[in-house]
Amino acid sequence: MAAKTDKKPITMDTFLSGIWKENPVFVMLLGMCPVLAVTNSVANALAMGLATTFVLLCSNALISVLRHHIPKEVRIASYIVIIATFVTVVDYLIHAISLEIYNALGAFIQLIVANCMILGRAEAFASRNRLSGTLINGLGMGLGFTLALLCLGSVRELLGSGTLLGIPVFGEAFEPWVIMLLPPGGFFVLGVWLLLFAWIKERQIKRAAAGTGEAAAHAR
Amino acid sequence: MSTTASAEPQRPAPTSSIKLIGTLGLIALFSGLMVVSVVEFTRPYIAENHRIALERAVLEVIPGAWERREFVLTDEGVFPAGEAPGPGRTIHAGFDAEGTFKGVALEASGRGYADIIRILYGYDPACECVVGMTVLESRETPGLGDKIETDPAFVANFERLDARLAADGSGLANRIRTVAPGAAEHPWEIDGITGATISAEAIGSMIHRSADGLLPELAPHWAAFEQDIQD
């Protein structure tokens, strides 16, 4: 199976698909647990996004390198062990870099191991493609995931605390919408972003269809 | 018949058990080496982070403190860390720039609304009162329960909270407790927080429990803290 797709060319789409067309959060709805749980501030969202990107890149790179040597019968078990290894690595690194961020992210760092996006990329892409393509695709997916977390984190922190990265934005008169920091706020903001994404995509499809129609009319 | 047999797709031969075990074994070996290397590499940095966080918290809850020193409370008395004759409870003491003993920082914990809350509070034997409080660990609701650490009015309760011992020294003279916001009438009462009743009450009861149990043991040994810095 690997040989069939190994020579898939690397294009701009290999990188960009994770950011827009196949965004793990807004399109594929993967990794919802950290998306809803740790996006109550921009700093937490950024830290979780970068940690997930690190695990995604490292684990998928190793899986891509070993793809011809891992028998298909034990591939899922192998992927899980590899992903868990890098999650443990990132857990200790964050603990060593900043105790504040480590405490704020809590158990959600360890829960990266259960993020479907990482195992999904390993099975659907890394196990079938060369290292270079895997790294580019993984970077795009990781950035797409981080951007999505930042989209949620910035809105929730802005409305829920009146700050952005801890800096007051609205002044003292602003009464924070505490609900935005609670789980219902996460669902609400995610719903609004999904609606916005769906609307933009629909507009793009309509424009493309209109363009095709015009081209066909001119040709006639 | 032979035509039918040749039309069927050929199944690949199953991988040998030895190869499966070997693959998983090698991946597990790599995983183990990687994790142990990272644990060893980050150990001093993590320890240093915890030391800095503890130092910061101790100096925060003891106003005027400049330096932190560790002591051990045993059945035989209070000793500087490393000189204790046996195991005991670690006590963090704060000293100012001139080396004057300013108070001790004590840890307390109890169940809040979401989970266990861990706090550090400062006690000054000169005024027999709690002089500061900081939250070490809490998973209280953001925007509500976490006001125990962000609400300036609530934190101000712990600038001079009466915690004097009873005449017989067996426990606190008065029960430290959290009351409704604005209802505190006595210096040992804490004004609560609207919307965070359980969290605020948890702080009051955990400080009372900790001080009531520990201060009677510490009270006979205050001189030992001042003695150490003079030595």
TrEMBL record, chain A:
Its EC number is 7.-.-.-. It is found in: Cell inner membrane; Endomembrane system. GO terms for cellular component: endomembrane system; plasma membrane. The chain crosses the membrane at residues 20-39, 45-64, 76-95, 101-122, 134-156, 176-200. The keyword Transit peptide does not apply. InterPro entries: NqrDE/RnfAE, RnfE. It is a multi-pass membrane protein. Coiled coil: none annotated. One of its GO terms (biological process) is electron transport chain. Keywords: Cell inner membrane, Cell membrane, Electron transport, Membrane, Translocase, Transmembrane, Transmembrane helix, Transport. Its main location: membrane. Belongs to the NqrDE/RnfAE family. The complex is composed of six subunits: RnfA, RnfB, RnfC, RnfD, RnfE and RnfG. NCBIfam families: PRK12405.1, rnfE. Part of a membrane-bound complex that couples electron transfer with translocation of ions across the membrane. PANTHER family: ELECTRON TRANSPORT COMPLEX PROTEIN RNFE, ION-TRANSLOCATING OXIDOREDUCTASE COMPLEX SUBUNIT E. This is Ion-translocating oxidoreductase complex subunit E. It comes from Ectothiorhodospira haloalkaliphila. The gene is rnfE.
Automatic annotation (TrEMBL), chain B:
One of its GO terms (cellular component) is plasma membrane. The gene is rnfG. This is Ion-translocating oxidoreductase complex subunit G. Part of a membrane-bound complex that couples electron transfer with translocation of ions across the membrane. Coiled coil: none annotated. It is a single-pass membrane protein. Residues 112-214 form the FMN-binding domain. GO terms for molecular function: electron transfer activity; FMN binding. The modification FMN phosphoryl threonine is found at residue 197. GO terms for biological process: electron transport chain. Keywords: Cell inner membrane, Cell membrane, Electron transport, Flavoprotein, FMN, Membrane, Phosphoprotein, Translocase, Transmembrane, Transmembrane helix, Transport.
